[in-house]
Design goal:
This protein has a single domain, classed as DD-peptidase/beta-lactamase superfamily (Beta-lactamase, 3-Layer(aba) Sandwich). The protein has 13 helices and 12 strands. The longest helix has 18 residues. The termini are far apart. 49% of the residues are buried.
Length: 368
């Protein structure tokens, strides 16, 4: 079994094993499904995806159009019972849970300062950071998300999940907010992809609700939306806080049901979640409340890959994205969701893999 502490250094073979077993590698909270299961009628289209899946290292692929499965494929030993790691797609699920807490009144406003809920961060950079800043990745905290640098902030954050210490995330955030070795930015001014912002949102949820994000997910969605199986969410330690930047896992169809829930919600939270911050637009990566947008007013996201392939309904499309090629694509204009699992190799390959994805998704919607 791959070593948990070396997560960012796993090769393709290790990722294949580990992504099926994250709930065995790390402390975990089980998220129970509820009955009855939401049926997914099947009307499969005759689409040959074998070459794309092989070249782009895809291990699972699902498309649901107008409520029907039109494409479902597995590879490299995965099948319909495989529970696969979300990686950073969990950030988008965290956003959904913040939305439930706002609707219930447990969180008064996304413009509340984070120290209102996590007062231990008072006196640090986080004094002027709001939930909105964290949702939009504009907290301004000095932070590096370099997966190849063992001393980067994201590497230090990931190590919090292998030390077995409750409070590890909070201590990490205290240290991050107090650092003086690098320049911070005024909150709201600069888009900087920062997993620490998502972890902080998890702590805010925990303090506001009195229970963790996985418990909230079970209560508000997983036990109600007709999921087929239990899911899981990794923790910093048994009984500790959830790793709300990553560490979620479910079956392919249940990721699809989650995407259908998002597609059909149509509520104010999701509408606001799909509005990008000005800072992210200026950075060429339109980003809302922990969701990536395909494009916004002519700005096509740098996350969708090079090339000129045009996606039908692209102006309405938003994504949950995870390291090594995990994707949940929501296309309201086409009434379609797509889920993709993958085991992309080194980050040097990512741009080519994104180009392959962009071309495939465009061809898929043309085929529809």
């Amino acid at each position: 079994m791959p070593r948990p502490a070396e997560q960012f250094m796993w090769n393709d073979a290790q990722k294949l094993v580990a992504h099926r077993n994250m709930h065995h590698l790390f402390p975990t909270q089980v998220i129970k499904a509820g009955a009855p299961v939401r049926a997914l009628p099947r009307r499969e289209m005759d689409i040959d995806v074998a070459a794309y899946m092989a070249e782009a290292e895809v291990t699972g692929l699902l498309a649901i159009r107008r409520g029907e499965i039109v494409l479902e494929r597995y590879a490299r030993g995965n099948d319909e019972s495989t529970v696969w790691a979300s990686r950073s797609m969990a950030k988008s699920i965290t956003s959904l849970m913040v939305g439930t807490a706002v609707r219930s009144g447990h969180i008064e406003s996304v413009d509340d300062p984070v120290v209102r809920y996590v007062p231990e961060l008072a006196g640090t950079h986080y004094d002027t950071v709001t939930l909105r800043h964290c949702l939009q990745m504009t907290s301004g905290v000095a932070y590096s998300e370099d997966y190849l640098d063992r001393s980067s902030d994201v590497a230090r954050l990931q190590l919090c999940t292998v030390q077995g210490k409750k409070g590890a995330f909070l201590n990490f955030l205290k240290d991050l907010g107090s650092r003086r070795d690098r320049k911070t930015n005024t909150p709201g001014s600069v888009f900087n992809y920062c997993s620490a912002d998502s972890v902080l949102l998890g702590l805010v949820l925990e303090r506001a609700l009195g229970w963790t994000a996985p418990v909230q997910l079970e209560r508000e969605l997983w036990s109600r939306a007709g999921m087929e199986g239990d899911a899981y969410w990794n923790l910093e330690a048994p009984g500790g806080s959830a790793f709300t930047a990553s560490g979620f896992g479910a079956t392919l169809r249940d990721y699809g049901r989650l995407a259908l829930f998002v597609l059909g919600s149509g509520d104010e939270w999701m509408r606001e979640s799909a509005i990008p911050s000005r800072a992210s637009i200026e950075a060429g990566s339109p980003y809302g409340f922990q969701w990536w947008l395909h494009e916004h007013r002519g700005v096509v996201s740098s996350k969708v890959g090079a090339g000129d392939a045009t996606l039908r309904g692209g102006s309405s499309v938003f994504y949950a994205l995870g390291n090594a090629g995990q994707v949940i694509l929501v296309n309201p204009a086409e009434d379609t969701v797509v889920v993709k699992w993958a085991i992309w190799g080194a980050p040097a390959q990512f741009e080519e893999r994104r180009r392959q994805d962009r071309a495939f998704f465009a061809a898929l919607f043309d085929a529809f």
